[in-house]
Structure formats: structure tokens, C-alpha cells
Amino acid sequence: MANMSNESLYKILREGEVVAYHHIIRALVMRNGPNLEGISAEMLRDVRELLHIPEDRHEAEMKAALLSPDVLAAVSTPSIRKRAHPDYDITMAHDSDSTEDDDRPPVKRTRIA
Q1: Which of 16, 18, 38, 106 has the fewest Cβ atoms within 10 Å of its own Cβ atom?
Q2: Spatial contact of 19 and 57, defined as CB atoms under 8 Å apart
């Protein structure tokens, strides 16, 4: 890497920034739905500013997220959008759309040190 030009290094950095922004938008839309508000919208604005993401790129990333089958599936699955705790084990989430068990606490993962 020491022999790489500044332009090559900049391209690698920029690609990483854009990919990171892409994944952040997907995660936020999966978690909160298409209308980002409050802390999610504020965080996304801060990340946009930090990574120098222009408005047209932001709009393209939002559109891509909203058209993604994976994102749409997550948005329409209450047990995924409901996740509120960092230790919630998504693999243990119930598949039912019924709400009879929706008040149960999140499942804790066992952490191995």
C-alpha cells in the first residue's frame, strides 16, 4: 500500500464511505421503516455530513433501500422491526405475525469471553 498514489488511496477511502452509507441506510430503513424521524434522521444527517454524501447520492441510496426485497421483507416483519435491545437474538424471533406474544422480553444471547 505504501506505493499507492494519493488518488488510488482516495478512491479506496471514498468507496468505503459510500458502502458504509449504503449499509447504514439499509439498516435504518429495515429497523424504522421508510420514514426516518427523530434520532435516526439526525444520525443519518450527521453521517451524511461526516462522509460528504451529496443529496443526489443520498436519494439514490434511499431509493435503492426502498426497492430492495430484503429491506421490504424486514420492514413488513413486525418481529424484526420491534427489536429494541442490542442482545436481541434475531435468529430466535418468532415467525408469526400475530401479536399474542409481542410483549415478551427480548431473548438474551450468551456471551463467551
Answers
A1: 38
A2: no
Distances (CA, A) of 53 to 44, 76, 87, 97, 108: 10, 28, 31, 37, 36
Average pLDDT by consecutive 10-residue portion of the chain (113 residues)?
85 95 93 86 94 95 93 82 53 45 46 46
CA pseudo-torsion sign 49, 51, 54, 56: negative
Q: Is the pTM of this model over 0.85?
A: no
Residue 48's contacts (CB-CB under 8 Å, 6 or more residues apart) are 21, 58
Distance from C-alpha of 78 to C-alpha of 99, rounded to nearest angstrom: 9
